[in-house]
Write a structure and sequence with these properties.
single chain, 285 residues, alpha/beta, 10 helices, 15% strand, binds NADPH dihydro-nicotinamide-adenine-dinucleotide phosphate
Length: 285
């Protein structure tokens, strides 16, 4: 039976460290601020924004919420981003995705100053991640690295399989595993022999967006299984991309949904915002 990796515990530890550093900055007269922008009234986005504001409180940051109506134009949002780029109180800018259809998400991401791009979605930061010289890491993959590290399992030389190649999870995840010398295979909807590839994975990361996609027979004995999926079922419950009951019989370590990767994403957002404030103030530790 696998050991369940508690994202709640690991995220508390990360937030505790961020809080300590934020307090030390406060003693130097430096306050850390995160601007959270939400457009429209998508209920899932509202839940995420509220969690991010709550996390700011926990770690001692100021949070500034900008709630704009559904019919906001792209230019209006670009104008707000410009104001926030120039606002001294704001160290990080988070524009909650998805945006309403009249707004081009890439145009907004590209307008955020790379120094305040705490989601690490701007092409400048994406490029930095590719060459391994980053200040910010994308929150979900960075959180997953913390979860894997919490197990003590070595990544170097291991067969790592990532299912999913999105810009926010799959691709950066594969890059972080590669930086740590994993032998990485990235799978997607056109992958042939997916089951066989997964069966060979020492570390398996599922970011597919399909409930119970990874079944027990796809999991190698002793593998570390990370479930990124957040799928809302008809009964309102959350379900991951991994069939937990089956996979936990074979894995050595496994993350639950909820309480696995989800809390880590927010903790890493706090870490990135702290990093932004430290860089701005030329503080190295
Ligand atoms: P996307 O929909 O952008 O990407 C899904 C990926 O899965 C695509 O690359 C797609 O392949 C691949 N895929 C879909 N069907 C199959 C299949 N049958 N076989 C193999 N691969 C397949 O999703 P995201 O990356 O944004 O998110 C993935 C999941 O993670 C979602 O459930 C999301 O809610 C969750 N998530 C959770 C976060 C957290 O904090 N815990 C943060 C972000 C996301 P192709 O490219 O070929 O279409």
């Amino acid at each position: 039976m696998a050991t369940v990796i508690s994202g709640k515990e690991v995220s508390q530890k990360v937030k505790g460290e961020v809080r300590e550093k934020a307090l030390a900055l406060k003693e130097k007269g430096i306050e850390v601020g995160l601007a959270v922008v939400i457009v429209g009234d998508n209920p899932a986005s509202r839940v995420y924004v509220n969690s991010k504001k709550k996390a700011c409180e926990e770690v001692g940051f100021n949070s500034y919420e900008y709630a704009l109506p559904e019919e906001t134009t792209q230019q209006e949002l670009l104008d707000l981003v410009e104001v926030l780029n120039n606002d001294e109180k704001v160290n990080g800018i988070l524009v909650q995705l998805p945006l309403p259809k009249q707004i081009d998400e890439n145009a907004i991401i590209n307008a955020i100053s790379p120094d305040k791009d705490v989601d690490a979605f701007h092409p400048f930061n994406v490029g930095k991640i590719m060459i391994g010289e980053y200040a910010f890491l994308p929150c979900t993959p960075a959180g997953i690295m913390e979860l894997i590290d919490s197990t003590g399992v070595e990544i170097a030389g291991k067969s790592c399989v990532v299912i999913g190649r999105s810009n926010i999870v799959g691709k950066p995840m594969s890059m972080l595993l590669l930086h740590r010398s994993g032998t990485v295979t990235v799978c997607h909807s056109k992958t042939k022999n997916l089951k066989e590839i997964c069966q060979n994975a020492d570390i398996l990361v599922a970011a597919v967006g399909r409930p119970n996609f990874v079944t027990g027979d796809m999991v190698k004995e002793g593998a570390v299984v990370i479930d990124v999926g957040i799928n809302r079922m008809e009964d309102g419950k959350l379900c991951g991309d991994v069939n937990f009951a089956e996979a936990e019989k074979k894995a050595s370590y496994i993350t639950p949904v909820p309480g696995g990767v989800g809390p880590m994403t927010i903790a890493m957002l706090m870490k990135n915002t702290l990093t932004a404030a430290m860089i701005k103030n030329n503080i190295t530790e």
